[in-house]
Structures are given as C-alpha cells and as structure tokens.
Amino acid sequence: MESIEEVIKLNRVVSEWKANNNTIALVPTMGSLHSGHIYLIKEAKKLASKTVVSIFVNPIQFGKGEDYQSYPSSIELDKKKLEKEEVDIVFAPDLKQLYPMGTDTDTRITVPQISEILCGQHRPGHFSGVATVVAKLLLTCKPGFALFGKKDYQQYLVIKRMVSDLLIPTSIIGLPTQREKDGLALSSRNKYLSEVERKIAPKIYLSLQKASEIICAGVSNFNNAKKALIVELEAYGMKVEYFELRRAADLALPTDDEKSFVILIAVWLGKARLIDNIIIEL
Ligand code: AMP
C-alpha cells in the first residue's frame, strides 16, 4: 500500500493506472476506521482493479461548536487496517492540499433542497461542505466507482445528485448500514458514548424497527406512533432532533401511493449526535 498526501502525486498515479487500463474505486472516509468502513473497502475491491481510500477530516462540513477539533483520529492504526485489506493507496491530504486558498473564500458546491432538510436543517452548510470535498476527491482520484454507506442516507442522496448534476463520470454506490450485534449502527462517533449511554444507544434502531412494522401495517399510523416512540427515547435521556418518514428516492414527503420509504432519525445522547435510518419497501 502506498501512502500519498499530495493531490499532484495522486493525479500522477491515477493517470498511470488509467493508461494501463485499470479501473478505480474510491472510498472517502474521515478515518477512525471501523468495520462499516472496512465493509465498503471490501466491496470496492470487488468492483475495480485499484482501490483508493481517502482519510480527511473535512473542516467545512462541521458547524461552529461541532466536534471538528475533537473528531476521533487514529491514522497509524487506520493505515494498518488498510494495509491488511490490501488497499492500493491511502490518500491522506492535509488542509492545504484540498483547500490551497484556505476555507474562508473558497468555491463551494451546493445541492439545493435536499441539503436543506433533516440533517441539513440542523447543520446549516453541512451538505455543501460534504458535496465540495467529495467533488474535490472525485476530481483528484477520477474513480469509476465511489462507495458510500447508507448509514448517512441523506449524504448518499446529496452526492448522487451532485454527481448527476455536474456530469461527473463516477458511479455512486450506496451500501447497507453495518451494525453492532445489538443493532447500533457503527459510527466513529460511538466513541463519545459513556458505558451507560452505549447500553441505551441500541434503542435508536429498535425504535426504527418498531416504526417500520407500524408502517407496514398502515402508513397513516406513523405520526401517532412517532410521538410515542419519541417519548420512549426521551425517557432514556436522548434528545430527538428529528424522526421522519420520507420518500426513499429523494426524501420528499411521501405521497399516498408511495411504496419506497425511509425513516430517518437523529438523536443526541450525551456528547454524541447519532443518526440512523431504515429503508422500507411495501
Ligand atoms: P465517515 O468516516 O463517517 O465520514 O464515513 C465514511 C463512509 O463510511 C461514508 O460513506 C459513511 O456512510 C460510511 N459508513 C459509516 N458508518 C457506516 C456503517 N455503519 N455502515 C456502512 N457504512 C458506513
């Protein structure tokens, strides 16, 4: 595995690969790698002859007072994990490489509407930060495939829309959420949970499963059930930011004849803001 920090160097390697008819899969991450990331990497390796994993904690997707400064980092351990997976390149640029002119007046990409709801409403500018950095990574790495987890379902849709609108020739692959045995979605931010909070955290997925069963019995039951489920979660000390039923394709409010749904949730549990979702096909 080669470790690359410079954009220009990655450009050069990628050009050589392409000249030799290789296909490339990119897995963008913020590091602190867990089995959810490793799953994406294993899938990437099945899709293309070369795999690149990027590690970059992107400051412009964090709001004021969020956890940019304290975001967990374990770069040496991450590299060992990537070596074991036989990744071809780990791309770990510093801020200057991706934002050569700084982050005050740099060009941003905005995907309207879908970026403004749910997580976007609670984290203004977050998805513009995500779209901007992913566009930079795609332009630098020029992969045929880029893989994302549906754990961050809204992010996955924002990126799909951005790539489609900007005519970027990369297939965006969305893969299912990987979970702990007790149902908690794997996340780098689970490290923020105390022992007690960690035991409570699986209730998030449990409430999504309950809501899913209720919807399967009748979509119109969701709103009443939602109120009770939020009360239950809050009784465990969580603060529910949103708990919403949406159309899976674009997160619009579902119409009466809708068949594909996603229920999305964001909660605060202690210092951790946790998100999860469940996809429902009727
Ligand atoms: P992050 O490092 O949290 O920015 O995540 C990098 C990529 O891994 C994103 O595409 C995430 O959606 C994906 N990812 C994170 N957690 C999981 C998970 N539990 N299951 C599947 N993919 C995940």
Fold and architecture overview:
This protein has 282 residues and is α/β, with parallel strands linked by helices. It has helices spanning 7-19, 35-47, 75-84, 95-98, 119-122, 126-141, 153-165, 195-200, 203-217, 222-235; strands at 2-4, 24-29, 50-55, 89-91, 145-149, 171-175, 239-247, 260-269, 272-281. The strands form two sheets. A six-stranded parallel beta sheet has the order 1-4-3-2-5-6, with helices on both faces. Strands 7-8-9 form a three-stranded antiparallel beta sheet, with helices on one face. Helix 9 runs antiparallel to helix 10. It starts with a strand and ends with a strand. The site of adenosine monophosphate (AMP) has 16 residues, from helix 2 and strand 5. Adenosine monophosphate is lined by residues 29-30, 36-37, 39-40, 148-149, 151-152, 177-178, 185-188.
Brief synopsis:
With 282 residues, this protein is an alpha/beta fold.
Q: What does the secondary structure layout of this molecule look like, with pairings?
A:
Blueprint: E1 2-4, H1 7-19, E2 24-29, H2 35-47, E3 50-55, H3 75-84, E4 89-91, H4 95-98, H5 119-122, H6 126-141, E5 145-149, H7 153-165, E6 171-175, H8 195-200, H9 203-217, H10 222-235, E7 239-247, E8 260-269, E9 272-281
Parallel strand pairs: 1-4, 2-3, 2-5, 3-4, 5-6
Antiparallel strand pairs: 7-8, 8-9
Helix pairs in contact: 6-7, 9-10
The site of adenosine monophosphate has 16 residues, from helix 2 and strand 5.
- What is the end-to-end distance? 44 Å
Total number of helices: 10
Hetero groups in this structure are: adenosine monophosphate
The biggest beta sheet reads: 6 strands, parallel
Shape: globular
Strand-and-helix sequence, N→C? EHEHEHEHHHEHEHHHEEE
The secondary-structure class comes to alpha/beta
